[in-house]
Write a structure and sequence with these properties.
Layout (H helix, E strand, L loop, with lengths): L7 H40 L4 E8 L10 E6 L5 E5 L5 E7 L5 E7 L2 E2 L3 E3 L7 E7 L23
Parallel strand pairs: 1-8
Antiparallel strand pairs: 1-4, 2-3, 2-5, 5-6, 5-7
Length: 156
């Protein structure tokens, strides 16, 4: 069987059609890859553990800051306790907390303790802010005695 020679425009058509199909196939492949990669990237970012942070303020019964109050953070797994001394504005901060551990948080000032606050491993938050209220009584004045020499409270 004898092959008939193709005219010049048919030769050109034979070379253009496969290139066009190849280009369309390549564009379709890239589009599918991008559409599939976007949800996987979002899913991967959800599973990346992020640092948990606990911060807040220690205040007295009137809402004023208590500087020097000791803030405690107890790890429920190891029963280990971290402490932080509140700054002059009563602020405290604990960082690098585990996502899968429960914590208990409280503050103390002059041997008076605030209510405990809980942080659960089931909380989806990564940043917590607490106001710890310590109902501390006024410190005793050194100018006047709180008890007289007779053992009774002094008379005004």
């Amino acid at each position: 069987m004898m092959k008939t020679p193709l005219c010049p425009w048919m030769k050109r058509m034979n070379s253009v059609i496969p290139r066009r199909n190849l280009l369309l196939s390549l564009i379709a492949f890239v589009a599918c890859a991008l559409l599939l990669a976007a949800p996987l990237t979002a899913l991967a970012q959800k599973n990346v553990p992020r640092e948990r942070i606990v911060e807040g303020k220690v205040v007295n019964k009137d809402g004023g800051p208590i500087s020097g109050a000791v803030v405690y953070l107890k790890d429920s797994r190891s029963n280990g306790v971290k402490t932080y001394i509140a700054d002059e504005d009563g602020h405290f901060r604990f960082g690098a907390l585990s996502q899968d551990t429960d914590y208990e948080l409280w503050a103390e000032s002059n041997t008076v303790r605030s209510k405990s606050r809980q942080i659960s491993s089931f909380d989806n938050e990564n940043k917590f802010y607490f106001v710890l209220k310590v109902n501390a009584a006024k410190p005793a004045s050194l100018d006047s005695p709180s008890v007289s020499s007779t053992g009774l409270p002094p008379q005004p």
